[in-house]
What we know:
- There is one protein chain.
- By secondary structure, the chain is of the alpha/beta class.
- Helix content is 28%, strand content 20%.
- It has helices at residues 23-31, 55-64, 98-111, 144-157, 190-196, 223-234, 263-273, and strands at 8-13, 37-41, 70-77, 81-84, 90-92, 131-135, 163-167, 182-189, 212-217, 243-246.
- The strands form two sheets. Strands 1-2-3-6-7-8-9-10 form an eight-stranded parallel β-barrel, surrounded by five helices. A two-stranded antiparallel sheet has the order 4-5.
- Helix 3 runs parallel beside helix 4.
Amino acid sequence: MVNINLGFILFPLYIYPTQNAWNPLFTAANTYPTLTFLAVINPENGPGGSVCPDSSYTAAIHTLNSYPNIVALGYVHTAARYNCGDSHTDICPATQTQAALQANISKYENWSKTSAGGCSTSSSSSVQVNGIFFDEAPIDAASVTYMQNITTYARNKLTHGKTIVYNPGNPVYKDYWKYADYINVFENTEAIFRNTKVLGPLTGNGVYANQSTLLIHTYQSNAQTEENDVDTLIDTDYDGLAGVFISERTVAQNPYSAFPTRWTQLCNWVDAAN
């Protein structure tokens, strides 16, 4: 099990693990031993079609799990359709069947097994996840039971860690906070972040700040401004958030397919803000 220190970095680690590709994360974890990194593992829009991840993922996840301050989360998305809204092109959260979600969670759990059907060669080389990151999560009251049910399943199924993160990227109906450990309440550009002006509505006016995270991409301001933003967001003396991630990369570049340009500084700033 991994202890999570608040004021962490939530990193959607959608980077294929070629040799040394994840080394910046490992270096940061070693440099900042009291800073927690929640790393979302996403081989193929989830655990993938095969029983086990390929050898590159297997080796990288084994290395990742050797760091006590990195928490590996398996990626699961709740949407099965993308034709909602007036434009009929929006994500339709909570449209995956419970059976489909359960199958993905079970596959992640099976990665850690050394018996038939597992992916680990021994208990000391486990390819495990320590929780689940539910992407495309709903925000409305109508879907609370849906998320409660799958969260209960995940916590009962997982044996190496039971951390649950929801990612709606928006403020949520209050009952969701009962079931998730953390909810990512913002996922958008720096420009939209600036227009948001106040964080109160995102975190229940601070009530849920220590369960809230933000993912900011397309960050265009200079390093000093970013450092100030990190300090403001994480500062635990003033309803600081649980975690954050900031990248200069744009949507067109896929902000999670490479490390941020200022990755080393981001880690330093988050660590200093704690």
